[in-house]
Every structure is written in structure tokens, then in C-alpha cells.
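Z., the sequence and structure:
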Amino acid sequence: MMVMARQWVKSIVVMMLLVVGGVRAATVLTVDEKTIVGAIGHYENGALVLQLKSDETVTVPMEDVTQVTFTWQERVAATPSGDAESAKRSPVPQWWRVEFGETDRLTAELVGWDESGVKLMPEVVGGELVVPSDRLRAVWTMTESLVKKAKEISVTARGQDVAYVSRDGEVRAVAGFAVGCDGEFLNFKYEDKEQGIKLDRLVGLVLSQREIPVEKEMYQTFVLSAAGESISGKILSVDKSAFRVSVLGGGNGGGNGGGGAVPIAKVDKITVKNGRLVWLGDLRPMLVEEVPYLDYMMPYRVDQSLVGGALKMLDGVVDRGIAVHSKCFLTYDLGGAFEKLRMTVGFQHPEGKMGRAALRVVGDEKVLWEDLDAKGDAKPVLLDLNMHGVKKLRLEADYGKDQDVGDRVIWGDAKLTKPTK
């Protein structure tokens, strides 16, 4: 009992040193499924340097990291005593919910918009951020009642942007082209004329659907403590209380040292993209072949079921995965960059309990795994496949013996790993 008590006290003391002394304590998960708890000392040559104890450090290449998390105590310990950026803001900021990139969202002031990009002063991230115009998806006011009215409007605007404008509590939609913003007016071209829409009347702006450029290099997504907010970029450095980050797509920050300062105190977790571990669902298929059985198409979905719910198989829920309905073939261009593909294959429950499908994993036209009579009530199968040299990967969910009844297949927790350098 005395030995156990001493060990428990020692563990508490070590954690106190990491949180109070290091002020950047974090839990780091690696591709090899190791867990490292330590204080983030600094970032150099693409690696985190962690202090495990007062006299011991470990260097972890960022490409070997899958996730970094911070507890509530760790974030509080990293909170700076003052907020220098707050003093730079206007007395009463006009906040917007800005959506950009694949999934990024921030609450920010709209400072301007010109050929260099959209200039934002985020509520959380320190310093001005410049988001490339081709990565902007939407801008919404913080007045929920007006946003609700705007989203209820049915509008057809093929290839055009849509501005939602309020007047006397009502909202109308205008199709045209956003051409810039000076911080007071949105410059909007419609009916062949450029007009200025005052920002205090703007409810929202939805940009025409466009394909966001795919980022092929490694980057990090910072999931913030503010609900639903995140920002993706590349870590430039780490100082006492923040990560200095450059926005994806060539955007820059106006803070000291370049890039925007993401306070550790506001970060829930950091996920690493395009490192040694790559989730298959994060890749865009080079070819999608979907054939409905009775003219009812159920397109494949990533990280959610075919109806938008959780991915639930016979033995439980998976957080990541690809949901498909027969017949669906998904082909990915891997370029021979990976060595392993690991995933769990099963059916959505309870909807797919009666399913029977022919399933295959094909690499460069060679069958790597198959079950030509997979059943919905069978235990999900764990796969660990060799991907060495595979350039084209195809996941096939074909009709089974009962045609397409219940063929709701999940390629669960599908992850690719690259070889170590």
C-alpha cells in the first residue's frame, strides 16, 4: 500500500510539473499507437520537442503524430495574462461566422477583401489572417433568426454567388458575383452592375460551388474550444502560449513572426493531415461508380451513415469510415506512397442487418481481399493489407445474392500508413 501511495503521489507531482512548469503540457498520439505525455518545449525542423521530465526530452517528427490533445487544466495554464490583440480591435466588433477550406470555421471581423484574399481578424486567433479567395465558402451574420430565414429561401444560382440581405426584418436573396469588401460594404455585381451592400444589412454570403484545391503536403487542423470552430494550416513555431500557423492555400498572417497565433488555451486538439497516417476518407476518389438497383441513389458518405447518423456496426460505433450502398466502386490514386491499409469491414446496423453483398479490395487490378457473400448479421472483419507499391486502390461493394436489400456497407476506420523515412 505504501509503495502504491508513493507511486500515485509521484505521478501527481510529475503532472503538476508538466502543467504548471511547462505550461504547454500535451498528450501526443503517434502513428505507431504510442501515447506520450509531456510539455511542448518548441517546434523545429518539422518536429515537436517534448519535455518528459526536468532532465529528459524527446523529439517527435510531426509526420509521426496523429493527434495532440490538451486538457482543461493545460489550456488554463497556457492562458496569457493579457490579450494584446483585443486592444487592436474596433470598440464594438461586427462578428461573422466565416467558413473556408474543407471544414474550417472561425468567428471573425471581416476587415477587407481584395486580390490578395479575404482579410480576417479572428476572435480567437491572434493577428490578421488572409484566406485565399478560392478557399472561401460562406460568411454568415451572428444573428441566428436572420440566418434561419436566409437558409429557408430556395434559390437557383448556377455558377453564381448568393448574397442574403435584410430589410425591416425580412431577408431576400440576390444572385451575382462577390468582387470584394472594404470593411464597410460588400462589393457585389448583379444585373451587370456593381453595387455596394452595407455589411450591417448583409445576412450571409454563399460562394458558388467550387472545388477546394487539394492540399498534398502535411498540415495540421486546430480544433478550437469554441463550438464548431477550427483552422487548418502549417505550424511555423511555438512560443510560450501559442502556435504560430500559416493558413492553407498561401494565406498569411499579419502577426509578429508571420502567421496567425493560435492560443494553446483555446485549442482542444490538433489533428495531423497527410503525415505518415492518412485516413482514406480524407482522400478524394479519382473515380466514383455508383449504380442504383431500383433508380434510388444513395451516394457514399464519409464519417457518417448514408442517412447522416453515426457509423454503427454489429460490434459498435466507429468514428471514421466510408458508408456505401451497393453498387458502389470507389477508386483512389495512391501513387505507391503507402505500405499498409487497415480497416474494419461490416454493415450499418440495424439497417444493414439483412444485407448480403460481394465485397472486394483491389490494388492495381489485383484482388487483395474479398468476401463474395458478406452478410449483414456477421461479425465485422478486421483487415491489415500490404499496400507496398500500390498505385490504384479500389473498394468494391457489389450486389449480393439478395440484390441490394440492406446492402449498407461500412469501410470502417480505413487508414493508410506510409513507411518510415
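The helical segments are 2-21, 72-77, 144-151. The chain has three helices and 33 strands.

Let me know what you think.
H.
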